[in-house]
Amino acid sequence: MCQVSTVVVDGKFKLFESQAILIYICCAFPGVASHWYPNDPFQRSKIHSVLDWHHSNLRQSSGDNISRLFLLSEKDYDRILKPYKKVVQWIEDTKRATAPHFDEVHGILFKVQKRLRKRMAVNYNDLKSKL
């Protein structure tokens, strides 16, 4: 099974995240059948409830954990992800599809990553010199 990053481009407007895309398409293009996205606010709120639950529960266990891998040393990152070529490809595809937003959103994480990797290298070298 192939994981594809979902992106919609409408002129200069670029949007990612399937939930946001669904709502955008249904609002921007009138006439979407009501069985896809109801006009009735009570029925629509049920769809939003399911989409929010999905985003908060199911997706959290995958994407967030992968993002945390960026905090590991390069050696550990490669050791953990190298056997999973499809995951590595998915990460690269996501970065490309959401550029430049991926780097903007992960900017703080990348700064922390750099500091942690530097600190781990210093600690490793200190430990190595004591042995």
UniProtKB/TrEMBL annotation:
Q: Which Gene3D superfamilies match?
A: 1.20.1050.10, Glutaredoxin
Pinpoint the GST N-terminal domain residues: 1-33
Work out whether the entry's keyword set contains Nucleotide-binding. Answer: no
The EC designation for this entry is 2.5.1.18
Q: What are the TM regions of this chain, as residue ranges? A: 20-37
Q: Which GO terms describe its molecular function?
A: glutathione transferase activity
**Which InterPro entries does its entry note?**
Glutathione_S-Trfase_N, GSTT1/2/3, Thioredoxin-like_sf
Asked if Signal is a keyword of the record, the answer is: no
Coiled-coil annotated residue ranges, if any: none
Ordered alphabetically, the record's keywords are:
Membrane, Transferase, Transmembrane, Transmembrane helix
Query: Which protein is depicted?
Result: Glutathione transferase
